[in-house]
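=== RUN LOG ===
request id: a7f3
mode: sequence -> structure
chains: 1
length: 70
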Amino acid sequence: MLTDRDERNLLTAAENRIAEPLRVGAALAAVRRLLRRERESVTCRTTAPPQTSNGSPGDPRRQPTAPLPR
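=== RESULT ===
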C-alpha cells in the first residue's frame, strides 16, 4: 500500500520525466533562434577584401608562402 508521501514522490518523478524534455527543447529552440539571428547579422556586414603584400586584393584562400630552406 502506498502512502500519500509515496504517491506524491511518484507523481513528482513522473512530472519531471515529462517536463525535462520540454525544458531542454525550449532551451535548444532559444539557442537556435539566437544563432540564426547572429548568423543573419554577420552575413549582412560588408568587409574589405584581404590584401596581398603588394597592396592589391588577393584570393583570401591563398596565403603567401616563404621559400623552402635548402
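=== NOTES ===
The chain has a mean pLDDT of 75.
Helices lie at 4-44.
=== END ===
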